[in-house]
Amino acid sequence: MKRLLTMIVCSLFVAGSSFVFGKSSEFKLPQKLSDYLASKPEYAKTKAEMTTFRATKTPAVGVAVHRAANEFGPENTLAAMQIALDLEVDYIEMDVRQTKDGKSVILHDGNLNRTTSGKGPLKELNFGEARALSAGSWFDPFFVSEKIPTLEEACKLLSEHNEEFRHKTYFYVDCKDINVQVLIEALSKYKLLEGSVFYVNEQQIGQIRAVAPNAKMLPGLHGPKDLDRMIDSYHPYALDVNWENLSKELIDKAHAKGVKIFSDGFGGDMNVESYQKAIKAGIDVISTNKVSVICEAAAK
User: Fold this and answer.
1) Which of 137, 139, 142, 113 is nearest to 125 (CA)?
2) Residue 144 resides in a domain
3) Rounded Cα distance, 151 and 135, in Å
């Protein structure tokens, strides 16, 4: 009996340790979404490449997905965020805006035309009206039921993921049209504030720090000649640098002052050779529309 009790206690300890140390089973997508992605060979390829990338002891670069995993799902939707979590990215870039009645939602454009079934400015609709629109049918009929997410929903999704799984994902918040207090309270409530970064203009830095002094500021760098001023004036966590301005000299100089370098590798810059050059120069995070390009560049 004593031996049996010992075995039971040990089993419970192991099970508990797995939870505490984030050793839960692999993230599971909703079944319908998983079935949809199973018909996309490029997704299986990207997933395999990210698994290999994450298996390396020290990934060469951080991965941010632009407007969530927009390659495989409609941008800035919960579905695209779920896909990003399945890929184990470091940051999900999202754009925060407000409706006419002050609800914080996730939408890139100020206008509804491109990515929803609606028309006109978001600012002219109350939340209930905006919520009635489809935010996914433009991408694929499969996503017709996707809605414009609220900030709260997005935070809840990441928080639940981070509570359960070893790999943590945070937000790369593009502060398009924000209520600072609401934004900070939501991120704090869901334990995302410390790990998230805020892409801001210079005016927003003071507004956010007045509420959250330790928030990680990520202002844009206008050009290499502005590096010292931006660092000395704002003491940012990181700087967002235009791809054409990236260089080892600039990155080394920023690192010497304790500042990280992020950059958006889109369009003509979204290729293995270009990403390799940035990785070799020491870039910290690449924001991309195609995760597999980062994996391939890092592998080489």
Assistant:
1) 113
2) yes
3) 15
Nearest to 68 by CA among 293, 294, 291: 291
Q: What is the helix, strand, coil percentage profile of the chain, to 5? A: 45, 15, 35
What's the length of the chain? 300
How much is the average pLDDT of 245-264? 98
Backbone angles phi, psi at 109, to 5 degrees: -80, 150
CATH of the domain at 80: 3.20.20.190
What span, in angstroms and rounded, lies between the C-alpha atoms of 192 and 160?
Answer: 11
Distance of CA 37 to the CA centre of its chain: 20
Give domain status of residue 15, yes or no. Answer: no
Could you tell me which residues come within 8 angstroms of residue 265 by beta carbon, excluding any fewer than 6 positions away? 243, 274, 275, 278, 286, 287, 288, 293
To which residue do tokens 């002050």 refer?
102
Query: What pTM, to 2 d.p., does this model score?
Result: 0.91
Q: Are strands 170-174 and 104-106 parallel, antiparallel or unpaired?
A: unpaired
Residue with tokens 């900070």: 184
Q: What is the per-residue DSSP string for 202-239? A: HHHHHHHHHH-TT-EEEEEE--GGGHHHHHHHH--SEE
Give the CA-trace dihedral at 211, 213, 217, 221, to 10 degrees.
100
Token pair, residue 284, equals 């910290």
pLDDT band at 272 (very low <50, low <70, confident <90, very high): very high
Mean pLDDT for the chain overall: 93
Quote the domain boundaries for residue 282. Answer: 27-299
Rounded CA-CA distance 110/107 in Å is 8
Asked whether 196 and 216 are in contact (CB, 8 A), the reply is yes
Question: What are the pLDDT digits (tens) for 84-99?
Answer: 999 999 999 999 999 9
Domain count, the chain: 1
Q: Are 297 and 73 in contact (CB under 8 A)?
A: no
Domain contains 199: yes
Quick check: is 227 in a domain? yes
Task: Cite the active site residues.
Answer: 66, 108
